[in-house]
């Protein structure tokens, strides 16, 4: 744990990507392979399920420290992270235990079969025998909320630098359904676990927002334009008569979309396809809000299958008959995809439309009208591009329509976590409904550090009520909120749900009397 704690300190002490990569490489060079394997698992979200309910942890920390509940709540409100708060309020501990990371993970895994009293003794014992950094890590591991600022790309680059393997190969290797118990660190690096079963996905190819004039992209005939859909990006795998559907978040979601799996099971051959899962009814793409109703359900009822049918718009093909096609040009892959689509019964599935255009001047109007199709805009793909892992500038661009906007007033604020735990960074906004204010959106991004400090000062001076970490503030600060889409929603008091809300700018030139009215906002729903 000491070596792992040192790694966390090094990662947290710098924002420089190369310095973080070097810290990871040093860890892989020095740590036992079992520990390195767990680092990969933890940093890619493959951590064990929560071993202990956080309500028990709150109860035990009060017993251990003797703090009154109200004081701990105040401390938690200020810090913004439960694991960090617990590590800070405990008396100074002595680092007397030096189990390896893999030994800790095994101990934590064994807790699931222990009684509540045994769990309590385990936790309180180790609180007393770990230093503050080790306790923080320990708290996060047992609470099931281990997160650190290391992206998959950063981790893969560190592994590539350490091992000498190609980054693309490593990215593919660490995806999919593996567990630390089922594979070794060396097998991951040697990519021996690629396709250990028929469900293995590939890393997704991602696009950057268009940051130049489209005329600067070159000759129009070198590009393909498609609609950018607002759904769930997925990979659709059929190997050896097995069908598997993966989301971009590396979640296996086959059971959530049985109608898609049933159609693909009837297709000839083996393949891996890339596309977007969308709610589609009568050949029209519905609002993303409809798709959300199908998510996170253990079972999908027959009624829901009928009321919210889903389909896929296919973009690309990554594998055909066990052959990796990612190094073929996009134009070639598109032709293979079109042939596969034509050869099979595609009732209920769609091939993403290749938009016809002769000149760059033809596209802006098509882009502006994309929202009428419930599309977010356009995708521009170079016909000569390979299917690379992650983002690579120059080959794929997303050219989204300008966001919808409203003016709303800040009514609730909450402090952030980590480095922002001293400032109010999480905001709730409201609009008018007659003489009342109704909440319409939450937003966490869009302000500069200077503006965040200014808002925090306002909240401290103008807080009206306190609900745990949340502060009700005087409705005076007006902001322009941007969002990608809007739909009716029974779950929100305002009656609407906004898609991807964020702060565009602080409207210091406006007062609360000038914010938007909910009935006018509803007119944005198409």
Describe this structure in words.
The structure is a single chain. The chain has 526 residues and is an alpha+beta fold. The chain folds into three domains: 2-143, DNA ligase i, domain 1 (Orthogonal Bundle); 205-400, D-amino Acid Aminotransferase, Chain A, domain 1; 404-522, Nucleic acid-binding proteins (OB fold (Dihydrolipoamide Acetyltransferase, E2P), Beta Barrel), CATH 2.40.50.140. The chain is built from 19 helices and 22 strands. Strands 4, 5, 6, 7, 8, 9 and 10 form a seven-stranded mixed sheet that branches. Strands 14, 15, 16, 17, 18, 19 and 22 form a seven-stranded antiparallel sheet that branches. The termini are far apart.
Beta-strand proportion: 15-25%
CATH homology group of the largest domain: DNA ligase/mRNA capping enzyme
What's the number of extended β-strand segments? 22
The largest β sheet comes out as:
7 strands, mixed
How many separate domains make up the residues? Answer: 3
Number of helices: 19
User: Which fold name corresponds to the CATH topology of the largest domain?
Assistant: D-amino Acid Aminotransferase, Chain A, domain 1
What gross morphology would you assign? globular
**Name of the top-level CATH class of the largest domain:** Alpha Beta
- Helical proportion, percent range: 25-40%
Instruction: Supply the CATH architecture of the largest domain.
Output: 2-Layer Sandwich
The SS-based structural class is: alpha+beta
Low confidence ranges = none
| Distance between the ends | 55 Å
**CA-atom Rg in angstroms:** 26 Å
Mean pLDDT: 88
